[in-house]
Design a protein that fits this description.
By secondary structure, the chain is of the alpha+beta class. It has two helices and ten strands. Strands 3, 8, 9 and 10 form a four-stranded antiparallel beta sheet that branches. It has a three-stranded mixed beta sheet with strand order 2-1-4, with no helix packed on it. The protein has a three-stranded antiparallel beta sheet with strand order 5-6-7, with no helix packed on it. A hairpin with a 5-residue loop joins strand 9 (about 145-150) and strand 10 (about 155-160). The protein starts with a helix and ends in a 19-residue tail after the last strand.
Length: about 180
Amino acid sequence: MTPRKSLATLASAAVIALVVAGCGSSGGSSSSSSAKPASSTGSSVMAASTPLGKIITDSQGRTLYRFGADTGMQSNCTGACSSNWPPFTATSKPALGSGLSAGAITLVKRSDGAKQVTLDGHPLYYFSGDQSAGQTNGQGVDEFGGKWFTVGPSGSQVTTAPKASGNSSTSGGGYGY
């Protein structure tokens, strides 16, 4: 084999290895995906003013959602659902911004052992389609057996429809912090 063909073969093998690694196992120990925001001790929950009204976000300004198919404090979002709608987890009770009741925030153990943050008895989630603070691309989405809505400071779902703009599902949707 010529050096040029060897280099091309090596480069192709490296690309294939990277693709395979990226598609890797769906095991529960992966935590490096940028589409899955994570929370930890010291996180907080706060209220933010948005075009949808006042909703809650995490300490980074990422929107939090409720799942209509959840029953009480039990999450019904696992597997593929939790890949699209990562649970908001913490190792201890998050700090609260003004307008939120400390008694309304609890942690519940998920089937995978993680502690999920709940507000007023409802598990909280992120949406993988929200890539930055202020986006609400998951508002009103109907998938995995229920509707997804942003959450108001009281824990109630906010059902306001997003304002239509030419590209509302990919717009920045940002609000100031």
